[in-house]
Specification:
365 residues, alpha/beta, Oxidized Rhodanese, domain 1, 6-stranded antiparallel β-sheet
């Protein structure tokens, strides 16, 4: 193998790695702009698209307000904004909007601009109907989700809930994010082909290798090289968590009697989780329960569990309003996707708990 060819392949690989690192590193502008998109109000209704678009533009220096984008032009139905409506909202405010599909988290890392991603609204949802703003940050991604505080996710976690579809947002005077992605993919392809050519030239010269074995050996080396490339760019430390999140809509959880769950709470320290809304929880709940409301998204659940020191293997029982309510199953699947392994739902809810307590009080009297 010629030294010049070795140096060329090394330089290309180093350039690819440097591009990833530089693109995923936070800029001072992004740091200073983050507070501009941490809204202080809770958002309801199908306005995630305008909020995501406004968040991206504010990260780029705009002073637009979400209320300026809440109109029929940008929200065409009760389900929210379409991709075309998101593009119109961005371009009407003087920024470039570029729809894209079939993307990976690596593409987002090298794009160098905010991205509006179409994701599942909850981990357990099966449809992609929610818009969030995604920005690369220190080996992962910062998510700006409507009225919630920004949160950090890994690449594997983002891929678990993202459709690969979205809109890049950039200033008209800046380079197109798609150019960076195409350049990066070209460099990847060129590097891989260069390695394959070098291997092909070297294999016939190896001692004891006949021409009839060239193809088999080359194929084997090609697979090894591809595997090494995937390992280098894969988010292996978070692969298990990402796969759990992707499978969350299809989790099956056990069901136990509510009385049994309450007894386990008293005797063995099991955790009771009330999946009802915060206002219902405040009005009354089973003693010792903690609240994780049904509308809590994955980014919010840790906040509700913060300070509880709950182990991932600890037994958790989830209940809601009644035996006809399915809030408990939604939260149970969310908890499973976050790595909690011993989750069950209760066959009855708070209404049955009150009825049982009233009947028991009546018997005592």
């Amino acid at each position: 193998m010629q030294p010049t060819a070795v140096r060329c392949s090394f330089i290309i690989l180093l350039f690819i790695h440097s591009s990833c690192v530089l693109a995923s590193s936070p800029s001072s502008e992004s740091d200073s702009s983050e507070e501009r998109v941490n809204w202080t109000t809770t958002i309801t209704g199908p306005v995630c698209g305008p909020y995501a678009a406004c968040s991206a533009m504010r990260l780029l220096g705009s002073d637009c307000a979400p209320k300026d984008l809440v109109s029929a032009r940008y929200i065409g139905s009760c389900e929210g904004s379409s991709g075309d409506e998101i593009v119109a909202a961005i371009e009407d405010n003087g920024f470039r909007a570029q729809p894209a599909s079939g993307l990976s988290v690596l593409d987002l890392s090298v794009a160098g601009s905010p991205f509006l991603a179409l994701v599942r609204p909850e981990t357990v949802a099966k449809r992609y109907t929610h818009w969030v703003t995604v920005v690369p940050f220190e080996g992962g991604f910062t998510i700006f989700d409507s009225g919630r505080r920004s949160s950090f996710v890994t690449g594997a976690e983002l891929m678990a809930t993202w459709s690969g579809v979205g809109v890049f947002v950039s200033r008209r005077s800046d380079d197109s994010p798609m150019v960076n992605i195409l350049l990066f993919r070209s460099l990847q392809f060129t590097t891989l082909m260069l390695i394959c050519v070098l291997v092909w030239r070297v294999v016939p010269k190896l001692p004891g290798v006949g021409t009839e074995r060239d193809f088999l050996l080359f194929s084997t080396l090609f697979v090894v090289v591809c595997s090494l490339v995937l390992i280098c760019f894969a988010d292996l430390p978070n692969l298990s968590r990402g796969s759990s999140m992707a499978a969350a809509p299809y989790f099956q959880v056990d069901e136990v009697p509510l009385e049994y769950a309450i007894e386990c709470q008293k005797s063995s320290g099991a955790i009771l989780v009330d999946a009802r809304r915060e206002v219902d929880f405040a009005a009354g709940t089973i003693p010792g329960s903690l609240n994780v409301p049904v509308y809590a998204r994955r980014y919010d659940i840790f906040q509700h569990l913060d300070g509880r020191n709950i182990r991932k293997e600890q037994q958790i029982y989830v209940f809601c309003q009644s035996d006809r309510c399915d809030f408990d199953e939604t939260i149970a699947k969310q908890l499973c996707s976050l790595g909690y392994s011993n989750i069950a739902v209760c066959s009855a809810g708070y209404r049955e708990f009150l009825q049982h307590r009233s009947s028991a009080t009546g018997v005592e009297k």
